[in-house]
Design brief:
The chain is mainly α. It has helices at residues 4-19, 24-31, 35-42, 50-59, 64-73. The protein has one domain (4-73): 434 Repressor (Amino-terminal Domain) (Orthogonal Bundle), CATH 1.10.260.40. The chain is built from five helices and no strands. InterPro entries: Cro/C1-type_HTH, Lambda_DNA-bd_dom_sf, TransReg_Diox_bact_type. One of its GO terms (molecular function) is DNA binding.
Length: 80
């Protein structure tokens, strides 16, 4: 079973990815991660490292801080 924190983070990544119009495959290409790994992040099945977080933020045209702030406040309706 996934941890609630990683699940919440995954929802944020999925929402941000969809908001900028990227597929999992496209986000994977921008971050040098596989589509499968992006899916695992979005489902909360893995806990990404700081380097992965940095790459995701950059590819999603946002900041690490913005992603973490959203995670901490629990607001997943923000725009990227």
């Amino acid at each position: 079973m996934s941890d609630p924190l990683t699940t919440s983070f995954g929802h944020i990544i999925r929402q941000r990815r969809e908001a900028v119009g990227l597929s999992q495959e496209e986000l994977g290409a921008k971050t040098n991660l596989s589509r499968n790994y992006i899916g695992m992040v979005e489902r909360g099945e893995t806990n990404p490292t700081l380097l992965v977080l940095h790459g995701l933020a950059k590819a999603l045209n946002t900041t690490m801080r913005s992603l973490i702030d959203e995670l901490e406040t629990g607001t997943t309706d923000k725009k990227p």
